[in-house]
Amino acid sequence: MRLILISGLSGSGKSVALHMLEDSGYYCVDNLPAPLLPQLVAQLQAEDYTRVAVAMDMRGGRSIAALPKQLRDLEATGGIEVRFLFLDSRDEVLIQRFSETRRAHPLALGEMTLAEAIGREREALDTLANLGHRLDTSQLRPNALRQFIKDLADLDAGQGLTLLFTSFGFKHGLPLDADLVFDVRCLPNPHYDPLLRPLTGRDAAVVDFLQAQPEVGRMAEDIRRFVADWLPAYVRDNRSYLTVAIGCTGGQHRSVYFAEWLAARFRDQARVLVRHRGLT
């Protein structure tokens, strides 16, 4: 059985992720109290379910504190491949999302403000953030989140580190989930060419422009060499995911090119995912 567990802050995109997994053929359960997880898994195993996704968060109350132990027990159980995904987002983004949807935060009770409720939830979930892969959805559009969840669900089973290359724009803030961050803002910017401005780092014209700059090639090779040199150390550290973030000003041209370029060179060394925060 492949079991994907989803947790995280309210408003960070858990419903989007769960719906994507359901559309991909997973049996999905939302808002499950953590103590009931072993019973659910045993029942679904007995009924020969092979792909299951479960969302657990603060709506289940204080029982969420039992999740780390439940996760350890499941990982020690034979026949179950467990992946844990924690969705996060910056406070100001969460406030904006709740304001736009006019939904009430599950902890916003009595005299508590929305900001206070988010702060209390973040504190309560702090111990869960590093149980698996932490995904910052602050600048991630719903379609991009759906694609990432689909890629995660489609990864082949088995042990090994997943190497995630993500592009981002510094003007939107650093990603919360980055393990390594590289700044490519010092390189020539296609944004200043009117013909290249509406394109992205995946378009041939932008690729040709950047590949014609000698300093782009030097920096790309320096980053590749650094990641290659230290990747074995992260593997020995029993990491499930390593997120390498490459940032430019807007997250549209240079960082996208670098993420794609690096991903192509590491696909024979690790399981590789690519995510672009500034693109749909």
From TrEMBL:
Binding-site residues, GTP: D57, M58, R59, G60
Keyword vocabulary terms for this entry: ATP-binding, GTP-binding, Nucleotide-binding
Domain RapZ C-terminal residue range list: 162-279
Domain RapZ-like N-terminal: 1-150
Transmembrane stretches, start-end: none
Pfam families tied to this protein: PapZ_C (PF22740), RapZ-like_N (PF03668)
Superkingdom classification of source: Bacteria
Residues binding ATP: G8, L9, S10, G11, S12, G13, K14, S15
Molecular-function GO term, any one: GTP binding
Keyword Methyltransferase: no
NCBIfam families given in the database record: PRK05416.1
This protein's name: Uncharacterized protein
Organism: Denitratisoma oestradiolicum
